[in-house]
Amino acid sequence: MSPTAARARPTIGIAGGIGSGKSTVARILARLGCEVCISDDTARAVLDAPEVRAAVIDRAGAGVRAPDGSVDRAALGRALFADPALRADVERIMHPRIEARRRAQFAAAPLSTRALIIDAPLLFEVGLERECDAVLFVDTPRDLRLARVRASRGWDDAELARREASQIPLEEKRRRSSDLVANTGDPAALEAAVAAALDAIIARTAPT
Hints:
alpha/beta; Rossmann fold; 2 domains; five-stranded parallel beta sheet; 10 helices; 5 strands
């Protein structure tokens, strides 16, 4: 990819609270002609690699090994949440491989691609915003986010608060983002807001 082509395809990160609809925004951006890298999907593929699986189980312990020898992702998630040192070690194993896959995906994207999208749950926490020309914050009321995670994950209010306490505060994420879309649960309004934000980002990052 030439430098000119790279500049014409801004990299946009997606940020927001748990249950804010970041994945929904990513799907909208994909429909609008963007190349979307979903970090969770990339991480799953990396974790399936035999050498990564072995290294993670060796570091995290037999408690994260599933009966078929794969990594029990739910058990690993609980272990990482409870042990920051373990989380840091597993990140050191996985993140370089995740980054390599993301770069390869973006390099292979058609030149007609309007933007390159990073959909990562912990965009700011792992420093991925430094690779972005813009960060789009999905601003969703807490009661709506709570209803979503209660339905999809079985979390109550206390669990949502506990999970969010381990992340950078939402106000800081909002402040550090360059653009914002409001998600009030109206699909049509969200789609229109995302399209407008994408147009604005492309316009201001276009080469002169």
